[in-house]
């Protein structure tokens, strides 16, 4: 694999060499939750990943999460037949199963060993099997799945894919994001709530959703548990807009100072980061 060349600098603010056209065009690509989250985790990492376009290596947890999400999307086309079995669509002659859907959507990139991949695939099937009754019971409420957002929030271009939108009643919508990993610390819960709040802020720009009240939900598939915010959601949505505006401003100012912390040890860019070398 050919290595990409990149410039080294002190990790503070972008100068004319490291900025250039890339910095001027920093927001020609819309911001997303992932980009905003990456910037606030470490501006230096954001610069390397999204401006200098240095790719990260494949990781199993990306493949694992995408595989589960793909199965959940496919499930929306399925139905239970009179025989109680799962069928892929209304025209399907033969039943399918969660195991078959997982096989058809399983991604293999990033696993170190076949045994690791097999163990994770079995874990994914257990997760989907436990969640399926919950998924099935809420089918009638779902109005959108994998809903693409391309809009502006307070003049800032924003994009994202909402896992699911439920209609609770004529005036209330539930924004749902599925997580295949368990939240290991309180900061993860805050970050995940910020994600669905950003999606709600973006959806509120569309005529179809204007005037609606939003419930924010993150569903942790491995635990089969939901973290939901109803009261206080409006304040959370307003805060997400503030964070987005501040992040966009700092990016346009070329502020890519690295943040030292425990995450540096597992960062894919640590070998080329001057901040990590000084830890």
UniProtKB/TrEMBL annotation:
Q: Which residues form the PD-(D/E)XK endonuclease-like domain?
A: 31-274
Compositional bias ranges of the Basic residues kind: 1-10
The UniProt entry, under InterPro entries, shows: PDDEXK-like_dom_sf, PDDEXK_AddAB-type, Restrct_endonuc-II-like
Q: Which domain of life is it from?
A: Bacteria
The identity of this protein, by name, is PD-(D/E)XK nuclease family protein
Transmembrane parts of this sequence:
none
Q: Which organism is it from?
A: Candidatus Cryosericum septentrionale
What phylogenetic lineage does the species belong to?
Bacteria, Pseudomonadati, Caldisericota/Cryosericota group, Candidatus Cryosericota, Candidatus Cryosericia
- What residue spans carry the region label Disordered? 1-21
């Amino acid at each position: 694999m050919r290595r990409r060349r990149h410039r080294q600098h002190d990790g503070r603010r972008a100068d004319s060499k490291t900025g250039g056209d890339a910095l001027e065009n920093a927001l020609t690509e819309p911001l997303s939750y992932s980009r905003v989250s990456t910037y606030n985790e470490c501006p230096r990492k954001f610069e390397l990943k999204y401006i200098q376009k240095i790719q990260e290596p494949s990781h199993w947890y990306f493949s694992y999460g995408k595989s589960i999400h793909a199965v959940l999307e496919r499930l929306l086309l399925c139905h239970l037949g009179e025989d109680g079995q799962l069928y892929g669509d209304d025209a399907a002659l033969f039943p399918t199963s969660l195991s078959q859907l997982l096989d058809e959507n399983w991604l293999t990139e990033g696993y170190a060993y076949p045994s690791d991949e097999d163990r994770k695939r079995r874990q994914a099937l257990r997760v989907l099997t436990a969640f399926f009754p919950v998924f099935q019971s809420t089918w009638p409420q779902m109005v959108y799945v994998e809903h693409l957002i391309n809009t502006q929030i307070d003049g800032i271009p924003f994009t994202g894919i909402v896992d699911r939108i439920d209609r609770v009643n004529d005036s209330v919508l539930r924004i749902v994001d599925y997580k295949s990993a368990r939240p290991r610390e309180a900061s993860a819960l805050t970050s995940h709530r910020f994600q669905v709040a950003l999606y709600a802020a973006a959806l509120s720009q569309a005529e179809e959703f204007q005037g609606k009240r939003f419930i924010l939900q993150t569903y942790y598939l491995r635990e089969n548990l939901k973290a939901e915010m109803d009261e206080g959601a409006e304040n959370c949505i307003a805060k997400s807009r503030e964070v987005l505006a501040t992040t966009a401003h700092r990016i346009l100012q070329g502020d890519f100072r690295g943040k030292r912390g425990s995450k540096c040890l597992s960062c894919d860019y640590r070998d080329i980061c001057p901040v990590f070398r000084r830890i």
